[in-house]
Amino acid sequence: MRLATSLAALSGALILSAGLAGSARAEAVCSHDLRVLAQPRDGLTLLEKYKDEFKKLAGASFDIDYLNENDRRAKSRADASTVGKYNVYYIDEANVALFASSKWVAPLLDYYPKEYDYADFDPGRQKVATYEGKVYFAPLTGGGDLLVYRKDLLDKAGMKPPTTLDEFIADVKKLHDPDHGVYGIALRGQRGSGANVWRWMPYFRGFGGQWFDGNTPAFDSDAAVKATQVYLDLFKYSPPGTKTGSWDESTGAFLSGEVAMLIESTPLAGEAIDPKVSKVVGKVGYAPPPSPLTGGGYAHGLAIGAKANKDEASKKCAGLFIAWATSKENEKRRLDADQFGELNRSSVMTSDEFNQKFGADLGKALAETAKVTAVNFWQDPEWPNLGDHWGIELEELIAGTRTDIKGSLDELRDYAKQLVANRKS
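The structure assignment produced for this chain is given below.
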């Protein structure tokens, strides 16, 4: 065991030193310190310990201003559309379309040094960072969906993890035993494009649904009706608090041992093995979502501000900072710090070091789910408005204050037509 640990440490050191050596060959292109607007992340805090390393590499340092998620979104939008003081913006799947279409950020790969190997990022996160064929940010966090299940409950029932949606629904019903404190599944019912709609979308896309056909709404379809009905039916087997709950309620019920299976975003995997928050440590298995469900791809990351970086040299400087910040060597540092939610590179998530920390079964499941991870939402600046509107209707359907699924979708279609018309005017 001691030998294996030593070899793993040596391997990690070699990876780190090799990466830093490669980085040191990059040209020092920065003539001024960079200003970065972001929201708090452990991975960014870790970077601040290595400012001298970046200054030696690039010829300048950096300063990061942190704001909570909502304030970060508001300030970055205001700054990018007016004065443009920040060289680097932290953006996410919900606003990449707005920033890219407004030309507030520059295409990343035009200024991202090739030796930093952008292709090494998880394929699902690359999809989310791409808008109309161009990449706009490098991931700091993200993921897709995993089927997360209680191995002990499935073993006791003589069941294997389901691979199809029909099997999944049948297993949810079999494992549902609320009289003994176990619910078959946990869902999200709280309104919001990132709450109930986010968990509904894999069913919608898995059944063949699409948001638009050109500028014409196409979501008032049989696929959307079927997806909604399945989602509503599954709430019969979800803990009561989840009908008005979001991530915290859904994952909290699983971590407390009340849920047999759920399909959730990959950060849950890191929490499930943390004894500080999980009562099911050692009892959890992972698999890709059952077919035909798609994984809900999301990511947050760093993008090059267009206005603050007025010339090519400034854009190269910002691109170098982003490449360094998300590099293999800094990812290795985040791995060493047990920052599971900050890991984004395939080479790290399939490494021996990752497997030793988090388990080979999780690494395998992450690789498999990346293959079915998709951009489930409408990639458009108006997505938050449309998604949140549907979230209100979906919450009412879950609560039973609204009962007509097709009528609700038709109402959403009319709202979408207004959004498209307003965009054209």
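Interim note for the steering committee: Residues 145-296+374-424 form a domain with the D-Maltodextrin-Binding Protein; domain 2 fold (CATH 3.40.190.10). The mean pLDDT is 92.
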